[in-house]
Amino acid sequence: MKVSIKNTLLLVIAAGLLFAAQVRAAGLPDFTEIVGESSPAVVKIIVEASGPPQGQGPQEVPEYLRRFFEFRGDGAPQRPRMGMGSGFIIDADGLIVTNDHVVSGADKVLVRMSDRREFEAEIVGTDPRSDLALLRIDAEKLPVLEFADAGELQVGEWVLAIGSPFGLDYSVTAGIVSAKGRSLPTENGENYVPFIQTDVAINPGNSGGPLFNLEGEVVGVNSQIFTRSGGSIGLSFAIPVSVVRNVVSQLEEHGKVTRGWLGVTIQDVDKNLAESFGLDRPRGALVVQVAEDGPADEAGLREGDVIVTFDGKDIPTSSDLPHVVGLIAPGARVSTEIVRDRKRRTLKVEVGGLAADDSYALASGGAEGDEGGRIGVVVVEADNEMLERWSLSGGVVVHEVVPGSPAAEAGVRPGDVITLIGNTPVKSLDAFASAVEGLEAGASVPLRLTRRGTPLFIGLRLEQ
């Protein structure tokens, strides 16, 4: 059977029309209107610097997690290097948002508009903790972008990015929101940004560009990608609008950012710890250490408390607490709900302030002289040098862990310093023996340790 060329073309055309109809029927979005209206307010950032961007050397950024700022140069330190990123205008008189790592260490910052006009920019302020920066150019009646309302973005929602990947000006990519509230701690262990994860194709040069919803509103600022090759593999991260609004307003008014600070070291609650604290499931932020005279200390928080809500917001995991606290204005007095001694209590906390140069931060942790006794450890008294080095008032050092014992099952290791069993402080061998003797058979109790200088809790279940 022969098929004419004409008939073949007709079949191809019919198939194309059918596919187009299926696309329309599927309700896939049309981005052309958003791109047309929003592109004029997206800018290209050109940076001239005498060295590599601060904090962005290859030894400081994990291979798999990169901030996608394109930097070009021949490596000669005496010659200027040119870097490129993206940004967007938020005020008709010239205020522009971009990433801190785009302009960090810059000697000169140029802003290029979509109509090819160029302006030299002044850096109003930067905030490395959120990776945001605010610039100003001398111009008027500029096109602007609007921020979306915080909290309205949903997982699965379509989003759009505009930027200059690899120097290709005003490129558009689209995808969906893969997750919200992603925690990506910095090299200093700080964790103040609940990142938006998307599958939007993002590449070097997109840094600082806007992430839009289908209303053309900015829902985030593109900041990082997860990659092993240096290019997009469908895992990109944006700073959410809730953080952007807070930081930008402070940078505009003060040129710096002060965020809420609680003064605790925290860790996640696992299944064993949840049971030992009387929780129905793993949840909350377990307080491992309280800074002396800090806001938490003055409010009466203790090591071993589990924070389950803060300022009326649930705290599902420890990484959620810094996200909430960081957005609260210093000096605000808020309620925090805790679990202590298997009972719920509510405390009032006056949130402290963490300035840009302060080194304090909310940090998230990881999760007897006989034959081991009831819990299966051989311990010795901690010497004064160890206590002083790790700022401990007392404790016992685990010398040996009996295989198959409750301590071994819980993950206790030789060298750990036990400082608390249940609610009983352990400052000596006698205190340790007394605390262990008082434990009930089959009970599940929290055990507070210091491991290589880092405090943490683990859940210990005794045998029947």
Automatic annotation (TrEMBL):
Binding site for substrate: 48, 101, 131, 205-207
Enzyme Commission (EC) number: 3.4.21.107
Subcellular locations according to the entry: Periplasm
PROSITE patterns: PDZ
This protein's record includes keyword Signal: yes
Chemical reaction(s) catalysed: Acts on substrates that are at least partially unfolded. The cleavage site P1 residue is normally between a pair of hydrophobic residues, such as Val-|-Val
EC top class named in words: hydrolase
Source domain of life: Bacteria
A Pfam family: PDZ_2
GO biological process assignments: proteolysis
Start and end residues of each PDZ domain: 246-342, 370-453
Protein name as catalogued: Probable periplasmic serine endoprotease DegP-like
Organismal lineage: Bacteria, Pseudomonadati, Pseudomonadota, Gammaproteobacteria, Cellvibrionales
Entry's family note: Belongs to the peptidase S1C family.
Organism: Halioglobus japonicus
InterPro entries: PDZ, PDZ_sf, Pept_S1C_Do, Peptidase_S1_PA, Peptidase_S1C
UniProt keyword list: Hydrolase, Periplasm, Protease, Repeat, Serine protease, Signal, Stress response
Protein role: Might be efficient in the degradation of transiently denatured and unfolded proteins which accumulate in the periplasm following stress conditions.
